[in-house]
Amino acid sequence: LLAIVKMAFLQARTRTAAAGRTSTASRRNITIKATATQTAGTVRVDRNENFGKLRAGYLFPEIARRRKAHQDAHPDAKIISLGIGDTTEPLPKAIADAMAKAAAGLATREGYSGYGAEQGQGPLREALAQHFYPGLRSADEIFVSDGSKCDIARIQMMFGSKPTVAVQDPSYPVYVDTSVMMGMTGDYNGTGFDNIEYMVCNPSNNFFPDLTKAKRTDIIFFCSPNNPTGAAATRKQLTELVAFAKKNGSILVYDAAYALYISNPECPKTIYEIPGAEEVAIETCSFSKYAGFTGVRLGWTVVPKALKYANGHPVHTDWNRVMTTCFNGASNIAQAGGLACLQPAGLKEMNDLVAFYKENATILRKAFEEMGFKVYGGADAPYVWVGFPGKASWDVFAEILEKCNIVTTPGSGFGPAGEGFVRASAFGSRENILEAVRRFKAAFGGQKH
Question: 10 Å Cβ neighbour count for 231?
Fold first, then answer.
């Protein structure tokens, strides 16, 4: 760089001498450009080229970065986060007590346990089957894990790089990003990734894709209730989806992480309520948003034995191999908490917690409607999807952060069809939710939307 500066200085002085005189203003206009290059590493291992396709960063760390920058610029600002869907309320007492007892037991000869079954403890698998899948799935089809997000990555590893992929648009970014990492996609094209089938879900189609226009893919990722739109698919719609998967010979990866928030009796809480789904669908779920286990980490994935690859090999067998090879089982303390969730006292506390967040969602939805916004979700999900027509989502995110000191999530971060929307999360204390409503109304209440 010093050499470049010196050369530029000498060239400038030569031009000045040749011209006889040069004004001070013209000398100030000299621009020096230097291109920074990465220093080669010691190893001779090429980077996985698929990671080079990813955008600058995963959505939520990028939001956290922008929040920090805003906080640094406004040290006294009291920021309220309605962005990342992280639970805020304390763990229910009966559930926390069960984990405390399990942890204390590890300090005794009688209560100590080491490695357990990678598939999960038998009593927990039985309880999950009885509570969430009565008469639909057996306990040995349920694999306990450290959460749905981790399982989605492991599912992708099991499928490998060759399958083609379809996703709802908008949808949880992990479906797309793991597909990119695995090499299932082409390059980023400015709005999305080549070789991914984006199934648009917007107000015009009631947030359910037009399957008559969707291309056949090997894998279909589908989340209901949807993150971020909050839309829950009806029995009729899911029957259509299962039929579509069967017709095309596709595997449906069904994310039911928010199923407990469903109030509408026309919206199934598991894909296995749909006849024939066991032949085409894997379902993944989690205690994260049910019992506040975002930090505890406990989920499960259901792989029916009836689900088979084209050559007749059971997917269940391969999934069992993945879990026994790449996973040592969920924490025994967390599993004690999960089992407590499914006992009478824990079930009541868990349902009360879900009801609390659902009320938060109702408060947010009502507030945006009173301000004249077009609002979706918030009835069967803990997310409210707010339209800002004609505005870029990241611009709206920045405007809300600047005017209200509130963090939301830009809709475009969930896919091309999310542009023009922001997601507001209902995960927050009641005090913060009410304060957020006050700030929103102060900033946006008098505008036309």
Answer: 27
